[in-house]
Amino acid sequence: MSGRVMARSGPPEERPSRQINIVLRNSEPPVVSQSVPDSEARSSAKVMPQNSLFADLQKELDALVGLDHIKELMYEIFALLQIASMRSEAGLLSEAQVFHMVFKGNPGTGKTTVARLVAKFFQRMGVLSKGHLIEVERADLVGEYIGHTAQKTRDLVKKAMGGILFVDEAYSLARGGEKDFGKEAIDVLVKQMEDSKSQFILILAGYSDEMDFFLDTNPGLPSRFPIVMEFPDYTIDQLIQIAEGMAKERDYILMPQAIVKLKQHLLREKVEGEHVFSNARYVRNVIERSIRQQAVRILNQYSGGSPGKLELMTIRTEDLKFE
């Protein structure tokens, strides 16, 4: 099973390694489908109460801008798990599914956000026992001497048991060629996928073209990842929607003139920018910078008094500063 959405890609950029990010979720008991007699099944075929299991996740997915094909794919996976449960209860063959995934797309297109939702979804459906996400990159997996990489990688897989191991910029593991320790990390991951295929889910993420190259370096890799999600760049209108949403979450509003100014800047940045455009990540930085600039403006403007509530909420054109 695979789901594909077209995405723009670009050359990777080096960035300093970061600490391992572990996102723990409150443990929820897995939900087991109840068997339904044939007579009741026929009468309730159009309204399936099991769909309520998807309702909470759907609310969170619907809150994400765009990503329509990914939302459809998540429902496909939900439907597959539900029908597999029904088939098992009916005494039909129901093979265990493999859910290792590849996420392709430019920075800021929602890959990590969706990975967290996937972890929550699979824990809720009983596929994963814990539903936590461990986010790592090359520096977290690759060691400094022979044997060090294998141990580091196995330790991280062990931490990911019951949840998801999310490897960002996974293509960097194949950069150094045959003698690079990154290849050792790949070999360990492949072995762990086979030995513990139902105990954790591995998600490899990165730029589209770079991930294609990475998968081609090991003939056995593509077949081990039955689900491929491609995250497209956001359109300008979607980026504006994201910007307004980010402002609203912080109790700010963007003036119409500020929105026009931001839209014009985003158009130029996407076309003329020197680096790969980082989509929602770029917008977040702009909003956070504008909030700081608004604070300075208001403090200077109202040095002898206090501004009203609306003024404290309003982001004006002069607050938008672009580096």
Kindly describe this structure.
- This protein is an alpha/beta fold and 323 residues long.
- It has 2 domains: 21-231, Rossmann fold; 236-319, Helicase, Ruva Protein, domain 3, CATH 1.10.8.60.
- 47% of the residues lie in helices and 10% in strands.
- It has helices at 38-43, 52-62, 68-89, 111-124, 138-141, 148-160, 181-195, 208-216, 236-249, 256-272, 279-301, 309-313; strands at residues 21-23, 101-105, 133-136, 164-167, 201-206, 227-231, 253-254, 314-315.
- The strands form 2 sheets. A 6-stranded mixed beta sheet has the order 1-3-4-5-2-6, sandwiched between helices. A two-stranded parallel ribbon has the order 7-8.
- Helix 7 links the parallel strand 4 and strand 5 (201-206).
- Helix 2 packs antiparallel against helix 4 (111-124), helix 6 (148-160) runs parallel beside helix 7 and helix 9 crosses helix 11.
- The two termini are 43 Å apart.
- Residues 1-20 and 22-50 have low confidence and may be disordered.
Task: List strands and helices in order, with pairings.
Blueprint: E1 21-23, H1 38-43, H2 52-62, H3 68-89, E2 101-105, H4 111-124, E3 133-136, H5 138-141, H6 148-160, E4 164-167, H7 181-195, E5 201-206, H8 208-216, E6 227-231, H9 236-249, E7 253-254, H10 256-272, H11 279-301, H12 309-313, E8 314-315
Parallel strand pairs: 2-5, 2-6, 3-4, 4-5, 7-8
Antiparallel strand pairs: 1-3
Region (Disordered): 1-42
Keywords: ATP-binding, Nucleotide-binding
Pfam families: AAA, AAA_lid_6
